[in-house]
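Ticket opened by: R.M.
Priority: normal
Category: complex prediction / small molecule

The reporter submitted a protein together with S-adenosylmethionine and asked that the result be attached to this ticket for the collaborator who will pick it up next week. Submitted input follows.
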Amino acid sequence: MKSSQNPKLLIDRFGRKVSYLRISATDRCDLRCVYCMSEEMQFVPREQLLTLEEMIRIGTTAVSLGVNKIRITGGEPLTRTGILQVFQALGKLEGLDDLTVTTNGSQLARFAQPLKDAGVSRINISLDTLQADRFKTLTRNGKIEKTLAGIDAAIKAGFKGIKLNAVILKHRNHDEILDLIQFVEHRQIDISFIEEMPLGLISEHDRGESYYSSDQIKADIRQQHTLTKSLNQTGGPSRYYQLNHGASHIGFISPHSHNFCDQCNRIRLTAEGRLLLCLGKEHSVDLRRIVRAHPDTQQPLRDALINAMALKPEGHEFSLTEQPVIFRYMNTTGG
Ligand code: SAM
Ligand code: SF4
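Result attached by the on-call engineer:
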């Protein structure tokens, strides 16, 4: 059914139902991960960011149109002043089955319990290494203790799901795959291994040379563990396996080796209010203009979301050898 036939649903030209919105709460971050940002980043002027109320309004409208999962991400979402308000408001929405967050964990020791209380069900925490000096290098000066304390606090708060995200780079952290596996297995949490995506111009390393494929990661893991395809696939880009028939699940996000566009159910809202229809393409709609032009009526925002479906591209390809065609960085994209 086309969206025009049922205006309560977001369905694109290829019949894909959009049910998942990722909101970038800020493009700013307290870390500078080498694959995500350049050393000298220009951030969006604060007055151009969506206000917390505007984020809530767009999230609420999306849920009224059939979105049942929202992830708050960034930049580092937990560095945005007052962000808890957004979680608290969205957490009350009828029809929203899953309210989730992706964080670097640096602020999580104090935020884990309030997030759980606000209705956050699942949490993704980024951790690429267990070695303090490497963490410092990969994040350009981050402190691993803070993220580890954040993980402990999340486990204590008792979320329905806790998953680590690890971007694997050859010769930087690929030798830690088995250590990371041991870390999650011991804590009965999950992990996704991610192939680096060519978003934004970086000079710190060559993305082609650092490429470490999901197939290589799986082969490394299988030297010591069994991986069984999990029945719990989420419909997202991660492909999940059960580790040693135990509690931990291992996901693989493989934008280079396994394209995931045909099942794409997601849209992204940047911190300045651009609705991005595809991670790897620039098709977008300026929702900030619409919410500011129509502060008291919902219909223009609803129409904009429904009409945006006609712009969602069929898919994208990433290249390991070409310079990126996408100049926006992952922190602006709402990764
Ligand atoms: N700051 C939070 C964090 O690090 O979890 C949330 C935002 S961050 C952009 C979301 C995820 O994107 C992180 O897991 C990070 O590792 C991943 N990421 C950032 N840049 C990437 C890139 N170029 N390729 C693949 N993943 C990337
Ligand atoms: Fe910050 Fe997350 Fe990007 Fe690292 S990956 S620089 S923590 S936004």
